[in-house]
Design brief:
The structure is a homodimer.
Chain A: E1 5-7, E2 31-36, E3 41-46, E4 51-57, E5 66-69, E6 75-79, E7 84-89, E8 94-100, E9 104-110, E10 116-123, E11 127-131, E12 137-141, E13 147-153, E14 157-162, E15 167-172, E16 181-185, E17 192-197, E18 203-208, E19 214-218, E20 226-229, E21 252-254, E22 257-261, E23 267-272, E24 278-283, E25 288-293, E26 299-304, E27 312-316, E28 322-326, E29 332-337, E30 343-348, E31 353-358, E32 364-369, E33 373-378
Antiparallel strand pairs in A: 1-4, 2-3, 2-33, 3-4, 5-6, 6-7, 7-8, 9-10, 10-11, 11-12, 13-14, 14-15, 15-16, 17-18, 18-19, 19-20, 21-22, 22-23, 23-24, 25-26, 26-27, 27-28, 29-30, 30-31, 31-32
Chain lengths: 387, 387
């Protein structure tokens, strides 16, 4: 619709036959999108064929991008650093629409009915809510602060944390999308820099900058009230710049236990989810970035900050021991499991490729060329809360 | 390919435009399939439009049918009572293939790599494994017994229980699909009549006929060993015929607690998943059939056996109290939530319709005509283990 560029990369003929009316058909459950951070493009990939399908260009600054999918797994909403929101049709392989909704954005989410896309912004701050179909503005909620950790909450709701005020705002769009009912949750802590919603939509975990520990909020409680957990988190480490603080998307809740990157240490921490107390540590090969559970929760895969970002380690979730160390490539930025956990796809930014491993034999299965790949997002995310 | 009948029911034009090459495109993440039990047909439905797309006929005896989806969410494998296995292309709306793989079958599963479909059989017993692409036979595992409760286990594996011998068989097809490595787990209990695998693929729960209590098997243990739980399950009730025993698909694991139908009583039981001990009971409006958690786990929806099968009750998972009683129609056989839980679709067999409710306001949103609908299956199941 707007700036539309389409490059055929390695177009693969659909495996199945034509439909009765002569159209080409393809299911979308096994597709995915890879962010190419340096070129403002995304690569559409096919999990079953372990192949790239096509590239869509013209998405602006993707140096710190994330995305979310429509419920039908056809459209990807890509949130760029430059405030751009791009709607990509992964079936047609086109840039269907693109708007600059703010000056500097950091992430977004789609409502559980698939009708609203929300974006959290640094400049001018607050949250913008747009129509998922047209990308037309629906609501602007200024908040007077930079916002972080935006997530979808069941019931046409969103939650976000405010960097400047240390609050969480729960926005309920169910009655009137343009005028959300707002619940402000104060005293979350100084300078939330990131946040995470658990997959049941119940627990919002907020990372704090310039203060030790983290905060959780039980969204099933009435009213929802902040509770401090892991009071020693980052306590004995020198203060790091905010961009060196671990992403909360690097947390995993495996059963009743959190596994998370330590701050500034070569360790993965374990914490009891109910008590919020640390229960143990595992030494690993570098400063962890993401601690990602295989979908069955039996193993955790860990990648690392430089200079150890060529390694990936696998931890047994029962023994908490490292059982495997892999060297899949240079600049491993992201790990994405196929939905039922059979494979893991790794972006090797500095090798310009995505590397695919069997998650049980640790055997390399395939590679896909990509331009400085960062995030890998499979369409199954459309069906999950908090992504 | 074989008996192919296609009836246009209420064909809806795709919302989005044509692709550049003129083909019609549609994502499959929001599609679903409704079993029409009396007519041997299935209805393909669109969650976003709350509408039927088309009907596929000629699937044989669907009086006790289930189905599973390919990883791309394009194909439904429908397991019929008569030993028929039908592969339906839900995008093209065609019966792509159909084989009679045994004399009398009761359910099936698809491997986590999407390559193998397994079917458990009463006649002649055992498990047949077929190629998911062609439906050609890959392996026959006789077992000398009727089999029940077949489920996919991560790593190209399947598990099944044997009615006659009281065993569980774990089939590992990862090294050689045609010659699975077999692990037999004895002493599961007398006459397993149904079984369930938890969504992490770890715990296999087996229901026993002619013996009180149930058995769980931890598939992460080496060797996996049966453990008896809920020793009083069904103890004070008269012995029921096997077709009156609760389906184990009626169980729910919400957090660390099982919720399950009592045997022959108007009660839902609560049990601690770790200890296997009963922790409480909730009185409900009839003999429960399915106790189904809303995807966030905050509520459980319950339907009932005749004569109370016109009612549905909603239980609060924190207080264990009934908070809502609905009368959605006559002969409510199945409840299926949209993947992020915003809506619930109910099959009202005796009203020949599917009824759609908002799962938070309990407001009726729409109805879809269907011929004696039973099971409703949304494509998001493709991404989950044990379904």
């Amino acid at each position: 619709m707007i700036r539309l560029t389409l490059t055929a990369l390695a177009l693969i003929a659909p495996a199945a036959a034509l439909a009765q009316d002569g159209t080409t058909l393809r299911g979308t459950g096994d597709l995915g999108v890879v962010i190419e951070r340096a070129t403002g493009s995304v690569l559409v990939v096919d999990q079953s064929d372990r192949a790239a399908l096509c590239r869509v260009e013209g998405l602006g600054d993707l140096s710190h991008a994330s995305l979310t999918f429509s419920p039908d797994e056809r459209y990807a909403y890509v949130f760029g650093r430059d405030g751009g929101l791009s709607k990509v049709d992964i079936l047609a392989c086109t840039l269907e629409n693109r708007v600059i909704q703010a000056g500097n954005s950091i992430g977004g989410a789609i409502s559980d009915d698939g009708r609203l896309v929300a974006v959290s912004n640094y400049e001018p701050g607050g949250v913008n809510v747009l129509d998922a179909d047209t990308l037309a503005p629906v609501a602007e909620i200024p908040m007077g602060s930079k916002t972080v950790g935006l997530a979808d909450v069941p019931g046409s709701r969103f939650i976000v944390a405010t960097w400047d005020d240390g609050e969480a705002w729960l926005l309920d769009h169910s009655a009137d999308p343009a005028n959300p009912q707002i619940t402000r949750i104060p005293d979350v802590g100084a300078n939330p820099y990131d946040a995470l919603l658990t997959s049941d939509g119940r627990t919002y975990i907020v990372g704090l900058f310039g203060e030790k520990g983290l905060t959780t909020i039980d969204l099933w409680a009435d009213p929802p009230t902040p509770r401090r957990i892991l009071p020693d988190y980052g306590k004995n480490e020198p203060d790091l710049p905010v961009y060196k603080m671990p992403h909360l998307q690097g947390w995993t809740l495996a059963g009743a236990t959190y596994a998370l990157p330590a701050v500034g240490l070569h360790q993965v921490l374990w914490a009891d989810a109910a008590s919020g107390q640390e229960t143990g540590r595992t030494d690993v090969a570098g400063q962890p970035v993401f601690v990602t559970a295989r979908p069955d929760g039996r193993e955790l895969w860990v990648n690392f900050a430089p200079p150890d970002n060529g390694k990936v380690q696998v931890i047994d979730s029962m023994t908490h021991e490292v059982k495997q160390t892999l060297e899949p490539g240079n600049g491993i930025l992201h790990m994405e499991f196929t939905p039922r956990g059979r494979e893991v796809w790794l972006s090797a930014r500095d090798d310009d490729r995505v590397v695919i491993y069997d998650s049980r034999t640790y055997e390399k299965l395939a590679e896909i060329e990509a331009q400085a790949p960062s995030g890998i997002f499979f369409t199954a995310r459309a069906h999950r809360t908090g992504l």
